[in-house]
Automatic annotation (TrEMBL):
Record lineage: Bacteria, Pseudomonadati, Pseudomonadota, Alphaproteobacteria, Sphingomonadales
Keyword list, A-Z: Lipoprotein, Membrane, Palmitate, Transmembrane, Transmembrane beta strand
Coiled coil ranges: none
Bias type Low complexity, positions: 488-505
Protein name: Efflux transporter outer membrane subunit
Amino acid sequence: MVRARVSLIAATLALGACSVGPDYRPQTPTELGVPVAYSVPAAPTPEDLTRWWNRFDDPVLGRLVEQAATANTDIAQAVARLRQSREALVQSRASLLPTLSGSTGYQRNENLRGGGRSFTLPDGTVVDTGAGGTNSYSIGLSASYQVGIFGELRRTVEASRAQYEASGFDYAAVLLSVQSEVARNYVIARGLQAQIANARASLGIQDDNLEIAGFRVQAGLVSSLDSEQARAQRAQTAATIPSLEQQYNAAVSRLGVLTGQAPGALKPELATTNPIPVGPATVGIGIPADTLRQRPDVRSAERALAAATAQIGVAKARLYPALAITGNINTNATSLAGIGDAITGGLFAGLTQAIFNGGRLRSQVRTQEAVADGALANYKGIVLLALEDVENAIVALTTAQAREREFAIALDAANNSAILSRSQYRSGLTDFTTLNQQETALLSARNGLTQARADASSAQIALYVALGGGWDATTVPEAPPRTIAAGTSAVPVPVTTTTPASETR
């Protein structure tokens, strides 16, 4: 009998090593339609962009980006989802192990009439103590084990593991998005500070022009048209400042919220005007295939495809027999001393097979195959979108840098023209209309250079994010303990994950 049970267990373990359904195979870059090189000029040597914000050499920017990584509420939600996915994996792994439960009981039976002792009270009342009852003690232990003969349990764990890893990459994608939003709004804020400074500088010059025009009108050298033009020009310039200040306030408020603070928390720190952060002149882009390893959204889509593929095996396993083994041990005694005198037990192995279900199980297989096909299409689409992001960012950066060079020339020329026009107007060699045009061109050139510089920095930020910068792409983010996520930090611990031996069943 013992030998037969051992043979049964060995046979079930051997069957449990089998798995139905397709084994997942990662797609190659060629199968995903990834070209060998970008269609726009790009440096073929990739760079380590894990902490790309340090390349802008702006301590305030670096501090805000790192603060957002630990305090942003969107990141905290992504960490919570990652923890949920981890617990789903733990629950899935538990199905590989047997379940064990125990029970214990005590029962007291009393003989309330007769058979007991009695005594008489002083008033003559007879009291029956009801003694002579019996005790009953019981202890039981039961176990059950679901044997995944055709790999349904292994496939379920495989799917849960892929979903957990996908959640880790989803967290990284949220992290990159928040980092880019912080950097982008910081550039916007510094750019608006520069535009406000440009407007106020022009306003000071226009105040002088208005005063000069007033003197010339009083002297009878020109008509009041000059002073009215000067007054109108000054008012138009002054009117742009409140709008710029409103936009600046919105950018600073957004930075406060992104870093997990009140909207106005950063206003004192950013009140001092600083230049727009400027990154390095060139960025090592690498080749398109690098995107598959660096972009967390691409890797998340790949893991989602792996999970969908494993679910096909889970659905197919339902078409075949399922084996469950249960056993129990029980003992009953009338005293604790004799609890082990009589022990009974049982072992049962049951095999179930679906005979008729109207085609529901096969339909579930086809459904999972359709889900996997959709996941593959989504994976390919995200890869192509990632390459599109990189190429668009490269073009945006090169064009912004070209505009910055041209606006620098335009500003130099406009500044010289404005100086000459101002000097000529004071000498009466030109009219105020010409001076007005030159002053307007100077302000436009200043703002154009400021905007081009901000656009170049924003494009460089977008390029870093499009390349997958901002996290360690060599690792898979793991869920942190709850005390970290709910306390002072919400940053998962990135580690390289491996498949535990218990998952190979």
